[in-house]
Amino acid sequence: MLTPMSDRTGCSASPVDVINSSCFCLPLVAAERQACIAAGSRDSRLPGLLSDRTGLFAGTAVFLSSQHYQQMTRLVEAVAVSTQTSSYQAAIGQRDPDVDLTRQRDSRSLLMGFDFHISADGPRLIEINTNAGAAFLTKQFAGQGSTCLPAGTIRPDFGEARLDALLVSMFVEEWNSVRPGRPLRSVAIVDEHPEAQYLYPDMLIAAELLEAHGIRAVVVDASALDYRDGVLMHEGEIIDMVYNRLTDFRLEAEANRALRQAYLEDGVVLSPSPRHHALYADKRNLVLLGGGDGQPGALGPDIRTMIPQTQAIGEIDPVAAWRDRRTMFFKPSGGYGSKAAYRGDKLTKQVWERLQAGDYVAQQFVPPGNRGLMVDGAPVDLKYDIRLFAYAGKPLFAVARMYRGQTTNFRTPGGGLAPVILV
Q1: Measured between alpha carbons, how far is 319 from 335 in angstroms, rounded to an integer?
Q2: Which of 7, 15, 33, 181 has its CA 20 to 30 A from that of 363?
Q3: 254 contact partners, CB below 8 Å, separation of at least 6
Q4: Which DSSP symbol is given to 193?
Q5: Whole-angstrom Cα distance, residue 328 to residue 323?
Q6: Could you report the per-residue pLDDT of 71-104, keeping only the tens digit for each?
Q7: Higher pLDDT residue, 265 or 315?
Q8: Computed from CA positions of residues 102, 106, 110, 115, in that sequence, does the dihedral angle turn out positive or negative?
Q9: Following DSSP, what letter does each residue of 322-338 receive, concatenated?
Q10: pLDDT value at position 3?
Q11: What share of the chain has pLDDT > 70, as a percent?
């Protein structure tokens, strides 16, 4: 719920980064947003789960230029095309021979997340995620996203009813890509100890949405699945499809053995899958997508400017990289959630030596944007990034994540998930 304040002087500022730093007229109360979500659910657990997560929802919205939004959508569409080319897939297959890229090859990965920082030169793609969370928690508030556009501007429809329809059709389309002509009856939403995950409410809302559209849905730990006679089951019930929220991207853990076997033997439709992570979310993919002409999968020159220069750490001069480290961000190729990632200006010599022995990429550092808001009556500046949810090259909607510190988190007063308002 957006509640205007009396002082709106910052809202008429330009460009958008000035609006974000100076507009304090859109305070959001986390408890009100929690109540809105709980009111729309029949799950009696949600009120308590949401109230326990005090850092989940931010204290304001984030403004985004509609021009920048359109640039981001073009990149999403371009990535979908490039990653389907034979040259790109051959390069990934050579790099990752242990991943079978022919497995359920027509599937496109449920609910991908494209994460951007907004620089002075426009949006910059920081990474792509195949297990992007929080869409179901934030879809209810995405409708704010076009309210500030000038009259006559084409306004994206981010209404919750439309987004619900898109999200459900995404599951059905993914299922039909592998099992054409057969009805989707059941989905398991799978994570490691899902009840302990911070975004567990997101999974519950996803399950409830599917149930409301006639698709039986459960949220379970992967270890609770059983695979026998070519069928994946949970407590005696057949599972047609798994919406995979695991960060064991290659399903190598023993707890995920049944799920891995079912996937390899085509006993279940799995999305996202090891194939999807290899094609889309491995950080080394940005080396290809952002590469020069002739590089497998390289985007067009007007699009690839949105990808900061990214290099595999083993392919750069270590002396020069150490000298220029302050301009870089170092990430493990298979990482997630900024785990084991390092800003170059915070890097010690000891850590640097360890990174060179690992499977890391060095990415040109693009600082996040800043968003001003009032916390306990005092103005503060928080960082933010923009996550654009998408499926099969089709953008769905964007959400911002506000935080303080090196990376996104849900521990910052006033920080958390924020609606994105196009201007």
Answers
A1: 24
A2: 15
A3: none
A4: S
A5: 10
A6: 999 999 999 999 999 999 999 999 999 999 999 9
A7: 265
A8: positive
A9: HHTGGGEEEEETT--TT
A10: 39
A11: 95
Which ranges of 106-199 would DSSP assign to H, the alpha helix? 135-138, 160-178
Which amino acid makes up residue 150?
A: P
CB of 198 within 8 A of CB of 53?
yes
Cα(280)–Cα(107) distance, integer angstroms: 12
| 272 prior amide bond cis, ω within 30 | yes
Q: Which residue has the tokens 């059983």?
A: 226
- Given the DSSP bridges, would you call strands 416-422 and 62-64 parallel, antiparallel or unpaired? parallel
Structure tokens at 272: 């996202």
Query: Are residues 368 and 115 in contact, defined by beta-carbon separation less than 8 angstroms?
Result: no
Q: Quick check: 388 and 398 in contact, CB under 8 A?
A: yes
pLDDT digits (tens, 9 = 90+) for 370-394: 999 988 888 899 999 999 999 999 9
Write down all domains in the chain, each with its CATH number in brackets. 9-282+369-422 (3.40.50.1760), 285-364 (3.30.1490)
CB of 390 closer than 8 Å to CB of 76: yes
Long-range CB pairs of 120-124 (<8 Å, 24+ gap) are 120/17, 121/305, 122/68, 122/71, 122/305, 122/306, 123/68, 123/71, 123/72, 123/75, 123/306, 123/386, 124/306, 124/307, 124/308, 124/366
Q: Does the pLDDT of residue 148 top 80, yes or no?
A: no
CB-CB contact of 34 with 57 (8 Å): yes
* 52 within 8 A of 273, measured Cβ to Cβ: no
Token pair of 169, please?
Answer: 């059709």
Closest CA to 280 of 413, 421, 44, 101: 101
Chain-centroid distance, C-alpha 284: 17
Q: Copy the structure tokens of residue 258.
A: 């049944």
> Measured between alpha carbons, how far is 306 from 126 in angstroms, rounded to an integer?
9
Evaluate if pTM is beyond 0.90. Answer: yes
pLDDT for 161 equals 95
Tokens of 335: 């990482």
Question: Cα angle vertex 266, ends 262, 271, to 5°?
Answer: 80
Amino acid identity at 323: R
DSSP letters, 357-417, are TS-EEEEE--PPEEEEEEETTEEEEEEEEEEEEEETTEEEEEEEEEESSSS--S-STT-EE
Rounded to 5°, the CA angle 411-72-175 comes to 85
User: One-letter amino acid identity for 33?
Assistant: R
